[in-house]
């Protein structure tokens, strides 16, 4: 059964505050933790494409772009199903009769496009063995934090974020699902030269989507006419995607995602963190950031 058919079920009762449990020191939902052996042993295929991100880095946006490329800009084909059914979220485990990411992936014909938020060291090893292509998208920490905070408020499957002040500390400490943002972006950055990984940045996509889509096209060894490229740019713009029920998560029952608390397609703008961080919080954050990112060659833009 797919999630959108679950409206009748008393999901509030079935999914109270989700329990969490660490796997290898990384916070996960208990369902993921309990299923970890199966997830770790997931069998990737050489023609799989994996979209890997830290939560809230622009996963859904990238999924839509990739799907449109793969379907040569055919909108109807891209509207065949919800994002989460088009691209299985491999570690996302749900109680039966809901489909977990593994079930969806295992039942999907190849070539498959898959999604993960796993930190690099926890990626099922078959992806490396099969040399599957991976697109990683990173987004600056402050905007990720703001986006994750609001998402945790509206998504009943994630732990309650508490107050803004509390959440800033929780995020800095990496005590959120999928662990530390700092370790995640650095870990995947270090892996990118040893594997088939295209490493993209949300801010670059926002700055010049055409340029970034062209990088994806090259990586996928795909050629499309200019008019199809322009169509993809239009249909994956924030305003158009916000209206697309197959991409904006509004088909889920409000007992799972309550868009009246905060819409999934919220702002889509680099620099929104300035509306939330106090001057003191920002200074503290920057100090801590320097320590956690020391020695890394990565640079992020917190505005464009
Ligand atoms: P905000 O909460 O800052 O608005 P993910 O898909 O990884 O969960 O990321 C969600 C974030 O990406 C949200 O950020 C969402 O608005 C933003 N997003 C989704 N589609 C987008 C698009 N087409 N253009 C820009 N941002 C987009």
From TrEMBL:
<dbReference type="GO" id="GO:0050656">
    <property type="term" value="F:3'-phosphoadenosine 5'-phosphosulfate binding"/>
</dbReference>
<feature type="domain" description="Sulfotransferase">
    <location>
        <begin position="46"/>
        <end position="296"/>
    </location>
</feature>
<dbReference type="GO" id="GO:0005737">
    <property type="term" value="C:cytoplasm"/>
</dbReference>
<comment type="similarity">
    <text>Belongs to the sulfotransferase 1 family.</text>
</comment>
<dbReference type="GO" id="GO:0050427">
    <property type="term" value="P:3'-phosphoadenosine 5'-phosphosulfate metabolic process"/>
</dbReference>
<dbReference type="InterPro" id="IPR027417">
    <property type="entry name" value="P-loop_NTPase"/>
</dbReference>
<dbReference type="InterPro" id="IPR000863">
    <property type="entry name" value="Sulfotransferase_dom"/>
</dbReference>
<dbReference type="GO" id="GO:0004027">
    <property type="term" value="F:alcohol sulfotransferase activity"/>
</dbReference>
<keyword id="KW-0808">Transferase</keyword>
<protein>
    <recommendedName>
        <fullName>Sulfotransferase</fullName>
        <ecNumber>2.8.2.-</ecNumber>
    </recommendedName>
</protein>
<keyword id="KW-0963">Cytoplasm</keyword>
<dbReference type="GO" id="GO:0006805">
    <property type="term" value="P:xenobiotic metabolic process"/>
</dbReference>
<dbReference type="Pfam" id="PF00685">
    <property type="entry name" value="Sulfotransfer_1"/>
</dbReference>
<dbReference type="GO" id="GO:0004062">
    <property type="term" value="F:aryl sulfotransferase activity"/>
</dbReference>
């Amino acid at each position: 059964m797919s999630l959108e058919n679950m409206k009748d079920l008393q999901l509030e009762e079935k999914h109270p505050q989700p329990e969490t449990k660490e796997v290898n020191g990384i916070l996960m939902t208990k369902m993921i933790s309990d299923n970890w052996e199966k997830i770790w042993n997931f069998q990737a295929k050489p023609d799989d494409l994996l979209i890997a991100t830290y939560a809230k880095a622009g996963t859904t946006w990238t999924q839509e772009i990739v799907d449109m490329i793969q379907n040569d800009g055919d909108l109807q084909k891209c509207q065949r199903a919800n994002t989460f059914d088009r691209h299985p979220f491999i570690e996302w485990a749900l109680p039966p009769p809901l489909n977990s990411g593994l079930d969806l992936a295992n039942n999907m014909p190849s070539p498959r496009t898959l999604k993960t938020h796993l930190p690099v060291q926890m990626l099922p090893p078959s992806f490396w063995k099969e040399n599957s292509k991976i697109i990683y998208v990173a987004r600056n920490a402050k905007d990720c934090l703001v986006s994750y905070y609001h998402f945790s408020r509206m998504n009943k499957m994630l732990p309650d974020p508490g107050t803004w002040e509390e959440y800033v500390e929780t995020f800095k400490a990496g005590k959120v699902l999928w662990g530390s943002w700092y370790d995640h972006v650095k870990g995947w950055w270090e892996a990118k030269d040893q594997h088939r990984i295209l490493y993209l940045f949300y801010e670059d996509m926002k700055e010049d989507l055409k340029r970034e889509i062209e990088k994806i096209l090259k990586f996928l060894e795909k050629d499309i006419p200019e008019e199809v490229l322009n169509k993809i740019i239009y249909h994956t713009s924030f305003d158009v995607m916000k209206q697309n029920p197959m991409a904006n998560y509004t088909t889920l029952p409000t007992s799972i995602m309550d868009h009246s608390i905060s819409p999934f397609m919220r702002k889509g703008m680099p620099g929104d963190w300035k509306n939330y961080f106090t001057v003191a919080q920002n200074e503290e954050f920057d100090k801590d950031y320097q320590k956690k990112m020391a020695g890394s060659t990565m640079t992020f833009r917190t505005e464009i």
